[in-house]
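pasting for the record
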Amino acid sequence: MDEGEASLLPNGTRAIAAMRAFAARRGFTLVEVLIVVLIVAIVSAVVIVQMQYNSRHAELTTLRYNEATLNQLISVYKNDHFGRVPEVVDNTLPQLLAATDAAGSIGDGPEFRFGPYVIDGEMPVNFRTQSNKVAQIATYPPAAYQGGGWLYHRASGRIVADHKPGNPFKALVELPKFDGLVPLGD
């Protein structure tokens, strides 16, 4: 049925005739397929970028949480031990990982009533360096990569996440601050 014949039909019949003509055509044209593929590619690109951002955001949020938690645990240790802070031994802070007495000695028994402060028995892993080792630093804030998971400044009792070369320490500090989280390096 051509357009001239379709114009002679009533409105409802014209729509039915158009649908029949469309249904009689089998398959899609190359242009229609390319448009669908292009739309799927654009949506996929947007979703992948968003997923990568969300993944990085989650990792950094976890790192900030771990850093803030470690700083709080060191403060609790300091309060429990009359102002003394834990010491780095074998690239860890053993006084946070085990029960201690008032002097900070590790052991078992009723006199070792403080701690453990870190429940899992090991320091959390810094995802940027894939390490949970603690390196003691002389100055705070740290100026350079130390090759560990955490950088501990004993004089201040502060601990911060280490960073790999090419990921400057400032880059972590300058990320957007989120409610309830302590920003790195502050």
